[in-house]
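[Automated response] Your request has been received and processed.

Submitted sequence:
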Amino acid sequence: MASVKHTTEKALQMLRSLPRVCLANIKDNPNAKKPTRRGRGQHRGDWHGNGQKRWTVLRLGYECSNSPFYLRFKYEPYYQGHHLKRQYPPVTLKMLQLLIDTNRIDTSRPIDVASLCTTGLINLCPDQKHFGFQLTDEGADCFKSKVNIEVQHASELVIAAIEKNGGVIRTAYYDQHSLHALKDPKKFFEKGVPIPRRMIPPQDAIEYYTNPKNRGYLADPEAISKERLVLAQKYGYELPKIESDPNYEMLNETKDPRQIFYGLDPGLVISLRDKCIIKPKE
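Generated structure:
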């Protein structure tokens, strides 16, 4: 009994002197783990660098390395700020002529963003930085219609093709709130909210929309008339006289820089249910 007590007291005394058991001092038994040896072949065994065997399918984004492929290459600043740039979905002159021939667009009225969207064949997404349409020169040789069209961007050849047939083209800026209203006018009028004012162009777009060569809506009308004659001389066609045209009123119809819809001033409320226009009190 004396030896048992001596052994117990010795063990308790040893526990008092030892540190407390915690995660910092827990260790495996000696030789409990045997280190794995990598092979000496080309790939040092049957394992990829990303921790998977060679006969298994790689994880999405990995190409035989420890880092995914989009982190292996350096950052290129050439697309810096690309997500902030204004986008203009293209509409060709060939497609515009097809829409006119199939009676989806009425040429007896001015054509704007609302006219193109209501055809059901052209989509506009202002939420995806779409700021209107760009009229391209594909089909310029087969375009034969006389129209009064308003787009957001057009090249010199497109302007010449429109004016050669006696038409009028104008480039105008619309903010995203205005484009939401023009995209689906019926849906906007059903909300029963007043028509907002169109915002002025940002600083980097004022130069484009004030240039008469681009037929900007903020340019001087006299300067636009001179540029029409210069463009006709450059491309070698005779400029039709709009003043003597029977559709002069339609061709000369424009919007105010703050106006969104033709014939509807900002602040008006359109009631489709009552079929009336509510004007604000002065």
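Summary generated for your ticket: Strands lie at 90-92, 134-136, 148-151, 153-154, 168-171, 269-271, 276-278. The mean pLDDT is 88.
If you did not submit this request, please reply to this message.
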